[in-house]
Amino acid sequence: MKNKRKRKASNIVFDVVLYVILILIAIITIVPFLQVITISLSPQSVVSEYGLHIFPKKIDFSGYHKVFQYKQIWRSYFNTIFRTVLGLSISLFLYIIGAYPLSKKHLPHRKFWTIFIVFTMYFSGGLIPSYLLINNWLKLSNTIWALVLPGAMSAYTVIIVRNFFEAVPNSLEESAKIDGANDITILFRIFVPLSKPCIATISLWSIVYHWNSWFDCMLYINDEVKYVLQMTLRKILIDGQIMDLNIATEQVVNTDTMKMATLVVSVIPIIMIYPFIQKYFTKGIMIGSVKG
What we know:
- By secondary structure, the chain is an all-alpha fold.
- It has 15 helices and no strands.
- The protein has two domains: 59 residues; 214 residues, MetI-like fold, CATH 1.10.3720.
- Helix 4 packs across helix 8.
């Protein structure tokens, strides 16, 4: 009885400590986000006050109004959406057709190709050779291809998709071959539908990567009209570019309010997409694979 009580007491202590840690992590994560939202919705008199602004005292949408008047925001939004969709499509196609043959044990020199791919995870040419390749040799500078092609594939993600494909039972593939299906049909009618959790995960990775990228845009894009959203956001936060709107209009809005409003506008799409993809994360690989 004493041992049971001790174990029960230790479990309670462990649960309390765990919940305290999780609550602290949640607070550390949520408070800065609330600060950004509150400042973006607050007038100049509230923003200038000292201390944290977790909940808005007064609601003022003038910051968002100014941001939406800034034409470069809309151009950058379109460029980022186009980049994300194009980059995601290319990446998914390359991951699927690249991981499928690697998942087959009868692939000639399979071990060599796997080691060759893993090797690129630890060694790369570096920034300067990459810049020379894209800018001087391939002549891709100032085009969308300079943003989507260099990061189209990740060795780590290829290995993950390959391992996912390896878990698909061979019996499904053998049954399909008996019915006359070829490798392309097996890939896109059996493996891809069964890999929705994996595809959803790597899709989210790719979306977040393309949506948040700005450094490659700074390197390869010279025309401001072709800037992605994060590059425009960087110019606003660092250079104060959006301050020109206060000069062009009669209504003066706090610069921090406009910066935080721009930040919220750039983050909202990712927040909206995540719940729809998250449901696939917990699904098993074989849910619905064999029926009847």
